[in-house]
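Quick one - first record:
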Amino acid sequence: MAALIEVKYFNSFILRKTLNASTGGTAVWNGARSNNTYPKTATSSDMNWAVEESRIRGGYNNVSSDYGAKAYIVDDNPNASVRVNSLIYSGIFNARTNINNTNVFSVGEDITKSVDPINGSIQKIYADNSWLQIFQEKKVSRAPIDRDLIYSAEGSPILTASDKVIGTIDPYAGNFGISKNPESFSVYGNRKYFTDRDRNAVLRLSNNGITEISNYGMIDFFRDEFGALGNGKLVGGWDIYNKQYSLSIQPHFIGLQSAEPYNTLSFDEAINGWPSFYSYKPVSQISLKSNFYSAGPSLDSDDGGFTGANGPNTSGLYQHYISSQPRGTFYGISTPSSIEFIFNPNVSISKVFKTINYEGSNGWQVDSFISDSTGISYPNTSIDNYRTTNTNDSTTLVYSFNEGAYDGSGSTFANVNTVPITQNSISLIPPLFHAGFTRKENKYMANLINDSVAAPGEIIFGNKMTGIKGYFATVKISTDTLTDPGGSKELFAASSEYVGSAS
């Protein structure tokens, strides 16, 4: 009967006694002292035995050899241990011999490297050429692969040849880590992007160390967003099409996606700034060759949401920037593009903004044009003619060039805004007038009609007044739903004519 023998030492010999069934169970030598071969058959008698021996023939005082290295070690305490701040490496796969030792972790060798546990657990490792980038919750470090570091008298690290698989761990300057959001990590070229929510920072790791790219005009935004994140996610990815780092901030809420707040925005290296927000909520983001892809949430995801891909109620990857898809459409849902900015010339002068003008293509409307707040004079009184609430000047919706078009009979484009504009879709009788933007020398302009609520002490207010009064004004311009839906629209510049206020 077959038997499994575990060899304890590499330089050992197996001596065996068997019983030959054909001769009535007589003992047969195993060949150690002659050229006899091992018996082909044997009984299942308990008298059969095998011995691991260092002597070549097993006799007393016979020639012997050293046992050599142990073939294996029995762990007396085989319980698994979790070391959140350590690295371990296995044997290698030899492609020439096809010997695969990737499942071998030799306890007889020093195959572990540990980082400082005070900086939290290791959340992400990334092999970058001959360096291993190590991201802890509160620290980022690097370790050379198949090399080691020595330090000069000035403390500068110098790479040297070494037989170590993982060399000396060298931390980067700055107390930044990746928190517990490894999903925010993305890489392009020699630059790595990630977030540290505990320090309200979005970071870039490159040859010059770690840089806070969230400081480029977005300090307050990320402080507020990361503070409200809870157990949410920070999904990062590199948009190779636009050469931008895309980051989606997704606080943890239970319910449908339409009710969940999120912000997806991008960082552009060319301008060192954050140029745009986007109306999609990705589960993951990835670039392949020259294309950028994302995956939308599914109906059975933990936070609810809807199934999304290149069309409504379909699942899978969504490819961005393809001409067959309407502009402003993600996962089958269309959202108008909008730009929000502030008019604030001559900051110390109270002004009256009279007009709004822009250079660009047809199809833009003004959603809101709101002045700064006047403030409260007497908050705990109801005395008439005193300011007891904040008041703002604001305008009505300024229609786009096509939306506001009408003729003398009362027909308008806005009345049929569900019909795409083509040459024969709508019959208007010239001459045409425009209730919103009109065009002159390829520049679009409109008067601002005040739509404010009467404030205490005001004699003339609302549409009886011209323009919007205030030190500054917050303006939101968006694409309409009437002019070439899903088409490309450009906005180069916006301006406003203003005069100094008389009061």
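second record:
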Amino acid sequence: MAFKIEDRVRETTTTTGTGTITLLGAVTNFETFTANLSNSDTTYYAIVDNTNGAFEVGLGTFTSSGTTLARSVIASSNSNNLVNFGVGTKDVFITVPASKIVVEDGSNNVAIGGTVTASAFSGSGASLTGVDVVNDTSPQLGGNLDVNGNDIISASGNANIEVAPHGTGGLVVKGNNTGSENQGKIILNCQDNTHGQTLKSQPHSASASNTLLLPSGSNDGSAQALVAVDITQTLTNKTLTSPVIETVTGSTITLDSAGDIVLDAGGADVTLKDDGTTYGSLTNSSGELVIKSGSTPTIAVTFSGANATFAGNLTVNGTTTTIDTTNTTVKDNLLELNSGVSSNSNDSGILIERGSTGDNALIMWDESEDRWVLGTSTSTSSATGNLNMTPSFLEIGGLVMPDVTAGKILVGDNTSYQEVAMSGDVAIASNGATTIQNDAVESGMLNDNVISGQTELASGLATTDELLVSDAGTLKRMDMSVVSTFMTSEGFSKDDPTALAIALG
């Protein structure tokens, strides 16, 4: 598509109305539009209707298919509007309207109302005057623009100076190879042009080609600054590769995340330092979390799943330590309570909570009584001083006393029970058997019911029945046959009742 003016182009048309006309062929000694124009080319035209006394001059658009010419009027016999042509043959030809011709006036001046297009300008003089570049909406340069040390300014209002590269092109600030510091740069001055900040590319030696992507900003148009050392900023979704943060100003660093905070150390260790001095680390050991402590970190705690192993001593400070387990195993030989106290005025022991079953069970050392007690209590683990106690029974399978000599028993002395040996008339063996000592039973120990309380032998006395007698102070037993023999030897007859009575005393 192009604008063309050609000589001796003239055809006829019988088209009526104000629309596109159809060309019917060249007039004698003239050429057709088809021979001089291509499809969609534009040209100036004139239509003369001698039959109806009408004419029209305008800008036409040629269409090769159908050989037509679309009309755009410039001047006409119809008050410079499109002519509504009637029937009859009209002539159509290429011409230049008078309003479009550039001529030199009597003062040798040329006036141009539109854009001047030329491959070059030549002539004497240092400048081209009379050319309106202000109203030219698309001025073009055929070569480089040399501002000769001058500024490109916008002197009207608060207008911007815009650079709009074509397509994917950009604004390139080139460097020059006249020195090592002559790489491309953009200098942004202050309002007084006395200070400025420079955006400068890397030198050639860096072999760097990268893209600086400015912050996305926000929809409200608020300012977004690049990362700077002198302002407070928030960084979002940033990945740092092999970073070394040498200096962080401020007293506190806060990591505040709505999601997770991940520390991913490919070397398995996260080292903790204070002013450059190591005091600990977090370590991965075969999937276990190991916490190390010290300037030369040594293992303090190892976490394996839900299990924790402390390599050293464990000190727990606070008011209450709660252990919620099914079973608690203590491998130490001794369990010490009240460790480190210089003196103690509090009762101490083991309290067993019983819930709704009843008062708590308590095994304690009674500090005020200086002895062990056990029973039930309404006291809790937070109680101090003297604990209330209701004594209770103790059932044991065995009791070992300090002196394990056989034959000793516990005897109450109104203060406590003491281990003492059996003495006097009764002895006790280690199996609990008791015996009355020899010669221990005296007459005063006997009650008269020793005899009267026994079953009476009213008849049936036999020689085998036994009696208890004193043989010169020694108690002996004998049967009735001894009595019978004695009486016979003394001359008594068994028929002598008096003698028998005397013998029986």
